[in-house]
Amino acid sequence: MSRPLPFFATLVVLAAVGTMIALGVWQLGRRSEKEALIANYEAVAASSEAVDFPVGGGGEGVLFRRSRFDCTKVSDIAAVSGTSARGEKGWVQRATCAVGPDAAVTVDLGFSRDLATPAFTGGEITGIIAPGPRLVADPPVAGLQPMGKPDPGDLPNNHLAYAGQWFFFALTALVIYVLALRRRRG
Q1: For 116-135, what is the mean pLDDT?
Q2: Is pLDDT of 114 > 60?
Q3: Exposed, middle or buried, 111 (CB in 10 Å: 0-12/13-18/19+)?
């Protein structure tokens, strides 16, 4: 005589599997959205039209465009790992420019193989807006070397892998549940 399926456990497993499949489908949709976003960023990166640098955050709509910013007060300069325009690894000198009592702007001044803080006290910087947002100086300032330019192609688009993970989790949950049912009956 076979036992009936446990109602509550079956309901929970099917709900979890349905949720995981829905998350996988959602990730597939996000993949298409991200591809469109990257294509848009690549199109604007090819444009020479300059835009105002976003002060106070935000700025998703202006990423990878040329811009100009006048850094009147440097509050900090720190070396962060980075890459030169020639592909060398080293340090990018990143300045924080105060633009008010509660706001600051991040500017990558240029590349160096040396950790020493450059003599930069402020001034006008032209460059490309990178995620953050931060302005990547092009040309570099304070006697530094050119950095690798921000590239929309470097933005991660892992959504196909995420979708595959959700589908795999759903399949795994079903397999484990079937094995548990077989063990219960056996």
Answers
A1: 89
A2: yes
A3: buried
Residues 92, 118 contacting (CB under 8 angstroms): no
Contact 157, 27 (CB under 8 A): no
Closest CA relative to residue 109, chosen from 147, 81, 72 = 147
Which among 65, 155, 137, 43 has a CA at the least distance from the CA of 97?
137
Domain residue limits, the chain: 7-36+157-185, 49-152
d(CA 9, CA 16): 11
- Looking at residue 162, its pLDDT comes to 97
Give the DSSP letter of residue 117.
P
Q: What is the number of other CB atoms lying within 10 angstroms of the CB of residue 43?
A: 11
3-class SS of residue 36: helix
pLDDT single digits (tens) 56-79: 555 667 889 888 888 888 888 999
Three-state DSSP at 162 gives helix
Question: What's the DSSP call for residue 152?
Answer: G
Q: What is the H or E stretch that residue 84 is in?
A: none
Instruction: Please write the tens of the pLDDT for every residue from 141-177.
Output: 989 999 988 988 888 999 999 999 999 999 999 999 9
Instruction: Give the three-state DSSP class for 124.
Output: strand
Q: What is the largest CA-CA distance in the chain?
A: 85
- 19 token code pair: 């949720």
- Paired strand residues for 50: 66
